[in-house]
Amino acid sequence: MSQQVVIDSQAFARDAGILEGDLAMADMPRVHDLLTEVSGGVHYRLKGRVGALGKAQLQLQLDGFIPLRCQRCMERLDFPLHVESTLELLESEADLTQEDLEDDSRDFLPAEKKLDVLALIEDEVILGLPVVPRHDGCSLPAGGEQSVKESPFAVLAGLKGKA
What we know:
Elements: E1 6-7, H1 9-14, E2 18-24, E3 41-50, E4 56-69, E5 76-90, H2 98-102, E6 107-110, E7 115-116, H3 117-128, H4 152-160
Parallel strand pairs: 5-6
Antiparallel strand pairs: 1-7, 2-3, 3-4, 4-5
């Protein structure tokens, strides 16, 4: 990554810090294989806070259009990415209860003195992308239409009666 933004996650949350900016797709190398072209980017906003239970949290919001390839027609798909994550900081994984694990309103992140914010953003972009990107209502490419073929097992069934 050409840029680097590092924070003390606990202090950032406690001080209600705010980071906001734009991150280019060129600065997210782990996403490059999924893109039709390395262009565009995402707008991010990271806000620190202390949650209702007194736990340090980071709220991350991402918005942008990601140039993916539709897996049906193989054409470019500008996927609208909108991510809102609440990440609760943990001193240790031992702090997690079963109730915490079942709560889908937040995710958990180890508290770090040197948290790489841009790597965190790249992780959240990857998690926010569809497994199989497709246009709504697109059809197969022109050469991809399949004709109805006879099953090879139907041929075997026909031979079975002749023996």
